[in-house]
Design a protein that fits this description.
Layout (H helix, E strand, L loop, with lengths): L1 H24 L36 H37 L1 H15 L3 H12 L3 H27 L3 H8 L4 H37 L11 H8 L8 H27 L16
Length: 281
């Protein structure tokens, strides 16, 4: 029953994510207005048939900015997850397989970073480095890798005690090949689920930074920046905050459904404590 529910949840989440990716990828060719074109005579125009989401305070088409904003949200989210996942898996595998002072150093570094509130640390770093797209990715990745490192370390420490790892050592297989070919493939499903949740968190964090003026610089369209620009006109033009707010909500919901569905299909009771994956490996 749970697995059937997981398949449905994963399918719904994957479908929503696929639609978002298609819209973002095809943004330059979609029949929408230019996202940076201003028309002060049409400022705060309400939605209509010709302009389904209306115009903003500078007369820019909200639908066009929404579509192009999806590209930025996905780009920041995917880059953040890629950097965090790569760094986290590398350091977590080193800590879990080598142990000793290497494990102690990496584990204490993770503990220190986790002592800071994630969004506050990202805000501080973004404010120091300046509001650019690469800086946003760096600010979100500084703390984002810790979750992947802890998960990878736990899995490597568990799997390195298995018979197939001992057999590989006897055959003269090197540590790098053992981790890459024999251990990480077994931990990959867990990391995939974690990355799915991490993607939704990164998209929300980017929107929060942009809302505070620390994300991507204007006039680049960002859902968080659109929320910030529209909040002053909520009473006269509520569509300026409803559109990006709903887009964020639907995107995060799709990713959460996908992550929950994958976790149920793979029979993980908790991302950090798999119930079945290591049985009979």
């Amino acid at each position: 029953m749970r697995e059937r529910h997981g398949v449905g949840s994963a399918t719904a989440g994957a479908a929503g994510l696929l639609v978002l990716v298609l819209i973002a990828g095809a943004a330059p060719w979609l029949p929408v207005a230019a996202p940076y074109a201003t028309n002060l005579d049409a400022r705060l125009r309400t939605p209509s048939v010709d302009e389904p989401l209306g115009r903003d305070s500078l007369g820019r088409d909200v639908l066009a900015r929404m579509v192009h904003g999806a590209r930025i949200s996905l780009a920041v989210g995917l880059c953040t997850v890629a950097v965090s996942l790569t760094l986290g898996v590398l350091l977590g595998a080193l800590a879990g397989y080598l142990g000793g002072w290497t494990d102690e150093l990496i584990s204490r570094t993770v503990d220190v970073l986790l002592a800071f509130p994630g969004i506050l640390l990202a805000v501080a770093l973004a404010a120091i480095m300046g509001p650019t797209l690469p800086n946003v990715v760096i600010a979100l990745s500084v703390l984002g890798w810790t979750g992947y490192a802890r998960l990878t370390r736990t899995q490597v420490m568990t799997l390195r005690q298995r018979d197939f790892v001992a057999a590989a050592r006897v055959l003269g297989v090197g540590p790098v090949r053992i981790v890459w070919r024999h251990i990480l493939p077994l931990a990959a499903p867990l990391l995939l689920v974690q990355a799915t949740f991490g993607l939704s968190g990164a998209i929300l964090a980017e929107a929060a930074l942009s809302f505070l003026g620390l994300g991507v610089p204007p006039p680049l369209p960002s859902w968080g920046a659109m929320l910030d620009e529209g909040r002053m006109f909520m009473l006269v033009a509520p569509h300026l905050v409803l559109a990006p707010g709903l887009a964020l909500a639907v995107t995060v919901l799709a990713l959460q459904l996908l992550g929950d569905g994958l976790r149920d299909v793979l029979d993980f009771g908790d991302v950090r404590t798999p119930q079945r994956w290591h049985r009979e490996q």
